[in-house]
Amino acid sequence: MYKYLNINLRLGFAFLTLLTDCAYFNTFYNAQNYFNQGMKTIISDTLKSDVEPFDKTIEKCAAVITKYPGSRYVDDALFMMGVAYYFKGDYARALEKLEFLLTNFPGSKLYDDAMYYTGLAYYKTGNFSKAIIAFKEAAQFKKFSKKANVMLCYAYYCDRNHRELINIANFLLKQKLTRKEKIMILNILGESAYALKDYESALKSFNEIENLEQSPAEKKKIKLMIASIYLEMERYEECKNFLEAESDFEFRMLLAELNVKMNDLETAKQIYHEIKEIQSSEYMAEAYYKLAQIAESQDSLELAVAYYDSLIPKASSEISSKAKTRSEILKKILELTKKTEEIDKAKFSLAELYLIEVKDISKAIEYYESVYKNYPMSSLSPKALYANFWIYKMILRQDSIAQSLAAELIKRYPETEYVKSVKNLMGK
Description:
Blueprint: H1 2-40, E1 42-43, E2 46-47, H2 52-67, H3 74-88, H4 91-104, H5 111-125, H6 128-138, H7 145-158, H8 162-173, H9 179-195, H10 199-212, H11 216-232, H12 236-244, H13 249-261, H14 265-275, H15 281-297, H16 301-311, H17 317-337, H18 343-358, H19 361-374, H20 381-395, H21 399-412, H22 417-426
Helix pairs in contact: 1-2, 2-3, 3-4, 3-5, 4-5, 5-6, 6-7, 7-8, 8-9, 9-10, 10-11, 11-12, 11-13, 12-13, 13-14, 14-15, 15-16, 16-17, 17-18, 18-19, 19-20, 20-21, 20-22, 21-22
């Protein structure tokens, strides 16, 4: 009887163990299923649908870890939880789970995957130095050699370590890459060269991308970048030849800008007039703004005001606000230039407007000078003379002219407060 009882007890324990194993395996199996469902919604490391599969993953994995801490699937559960949190955007919890796995399960088959996702999580949080460390280690594994090195390039770019980025990018370009991968690497390589003002290298990368790229939209972006680099390098004739073959209005905007730089304002105006007739409010407003700036440079202030006022109802809040501010300044200038009384005050106010608001130093100097030369007895004359002294001394750094103005101020207005300030600035 005792023998029969022992057999029954053993069978009972075995049955309970079997039930426990089944429950444990079912929990893990469900977690894995939910995780796989979630991963199917991922495109280029970005979650494209709802987070429910990942919520379920986290719930089931937590049950595996809590109820069965000694099981052989704990590292799998930690990894799935970490990745689920990553795609939910909870990077702190993702790092907590992934780093626990890396520390406590160094022999796990998921170690390399966990290291890669740790790098991604640090990258997303802006901790680029730690992301770089993680990607460097992940890149040592064959499975992640390419992916981790690509991410290493992006981390170096965000960390402004362009020299290291260029080394990694050139290393990757020697590997077997798909066309898409090659474009990706060349693009960030070109951006880094551009940031370093190595325009020749940047042009080389972007020209190569143009030959590889098949998407018209992407091809257009690259061409615009190439044109911008030509402008930056002041290689105007090459830039002009490059742009004149393009009819798209974005290229036409660049061509107009190029003509401004080449001082061919009439051609620039012609192109801006052409662009302001198109339906796109963004480019129409920008064309009006550029026409207003040209009118300002040619002292056609009333025309400039008309252009600024024309774009205000058509533009986005940012450019509209800039145009409104500029229009108000120019209207004040026009009002002051028409004054027939207290002309010294009007000219002094004009000088202040040009110096502070318009940022036109030469005009400011001209109006200050007209005050102290034409109205020497005005109470504003010593202040205007001091203003020009200060501009030449502190802004233009032309000490010889500043010294001459200082001497004139001391001689003409020795009792004023400005003389002491002049002497301090001149070191006398």
